Amino acid sequence: MKRVLILGILLGASGLTGLYGADWPMWRGANRDGISRDTGLMRQWPEEGPPLVWRNNTVGNTMNGLAVMGSAVYTVGSKGGMECVFCINNETGKTLWARPIGKGYSRSFYPIQRSTPTIYKNLIYVLSSAGNLVCMNSGDGMTRWYRNVMTTMGGVLPPGGYAESPYVDGKWVIVCPGGPNASMVAIDRHFGQNVWVAKSGMAAGYSSIIKASFGREHQYVSFSAEGLFGAKVRGGDVRWRYEAPANAAGVSATPPLWFGQTMLASSSTGTGVVWLQKEGQAYKAQEVWFNKDLAVPTGDLLKINDYVFACTEKDGLVCFSYRDGKILWSDKSLFPGDEEEESATPKKSKKRQSASSDPPASVVTGPTYLAFAEEDSEDTRQFTIPKAAKSKKAKKRVAPPKPPRYMATMTYAEGFLYIRTSAGELALVEANPNGFHLRGKIALPQMKRGLGVTPVIANGHLYLREGSTIFCFDIRDKSRQEESSESSQETQETPSEKRSLPGMPTGPEVRQRGVPRVG
To answer: Please, what is the Cα angle at 469 between 466 and 470, to 5 degrees?
Structure first.
């Protein structure tokens, strides 16, 4: 009866859905571009900020992202020394359940955002910091199958642990274990068996896969520790590489951007755009431009039309041209005060935690995948974290770069940027290439200096995670409800007029191109 009630909550009609927008089922939203399709939102915040709907402080002090699906919010947190997936009621903010996915890899040397659960139909796919890839039911959190990407796929643990969010595409779930034998792996999402393995020889980075289309070929693109590479969707053949944006420390934590036949990537080394051309049966990666002064070490990049908004370690918040990398404007007003390096730098752990330090209880062994059929309502099983295999071909890396002062995570919706700054504030800024225009700013006691988790906008609500606390704000503009409703009716009455995606060029002469169809 308890499970039926939970499933009813998750699948039932939600008071938060409907007119204003859609769900946010994975890392950086439905299309992994950081763009929300919500409409009818506030254009100016009151001094006290948007109204708070609920607050939850039970998920543990981690930097994992949020996924919103209907009446449920999912995230990864810590509980009892274990990393757990949490399910939260989107109406009340109460925790419905928490399920362990293994003991975390606690070595932290750089401010990076951790894995976000991926929700696909009735299942959750999540990767722990120690490499446990777990599939579980979205309704009650019961485990379907489990694999460790190091012991069963030959992956090599990144120095800071895994931070990737799994990508689900139809029948497959795709992850990047890293290393010479498993740069990228496609897995049957129902049973956990390998479908294909892409061997680029590159170590795992700290960003996540995006799907792109070059010509008629769909590819999965990963920003690894040693640069970008693209793998063919069917078969996993590595088609091209672009190493210029990677840094010597292997810290690739900024999500890449795809547009048309090009890819953009950035790190502390600089930002570059590469043009992908097919030559015979192979692909050629030709650099369009590279700007070493335009360095985005971590955080988010947002492409809106021909412009990109980001936070560089030199100029603070910037808007630059996607076409040539020229900065149109920059602003540091969101980062006030003296430079406080110590507060922005994570403290080193007193004791280095071994990847194999899990309790010996319920050790998972056996073939390449395991299906759990137990009906344990509490799901107290603990997963072991196997020791990372050392690669003979692994390259020696230099120490990670010093965390920059200017960092930000951000999301776009309806003409505005929602920016969580490293100064410990959340700002509403116009996505305007002509200059910086602030429309609101809030600071909460839980917000600390340093990199924050990417804000989430779904169904007219803003979700913000600050350590062990999740906030849900109502950002709907009630005065615009009738306007949005009338606009929606007009769109339905003229189905022949195609509505362009946010972030894409417009005009009668421009051929509209959307995100590749999932599956």
So the answer is: 85
The pTM (predicted TM-score) of the whole model is: 0.81
The 8-class DSSP code of residue 161 comes to -
**pLDDT, tens digit (0-9, with 9 covering 90-100), for 209-262:** 999 999 899 999 999 999 999 999 999 999 999 999 999 889 999 999 999 999
CB 318 within 8 A of CB 426: no
DSSP state of 479: G
- Neighbour-count burial of 428, counting CB atoms closer than 10 A to its CB (0-12 exposed, 13-18 middle, 19+ buried): buried
Tens-place pLDDT, residues 474-506: 999 988 766 655 555 544 433 333 333 334 344
Angle at alpha carbon of residue 516, lines to 511 and 519, rounded to 5°: 150
SS3 139: coil
Collapsing DSSP to helix, strand or coil, 186 comes out as: strand
CA distance 22 to 457: 9
CA nearest neighbour of 318 among 250, 232, 404: 404
In whole angstroms, give the CA distance from residue 166 to residue 133: 8
Task: Give ∠ CA 350-162-81 in degrees, rounded to 5.
Answer: 50
Instruction: For residue 6, give both structure tokens.
Output: 């939970």
Structure tokens at 358: 């899990």
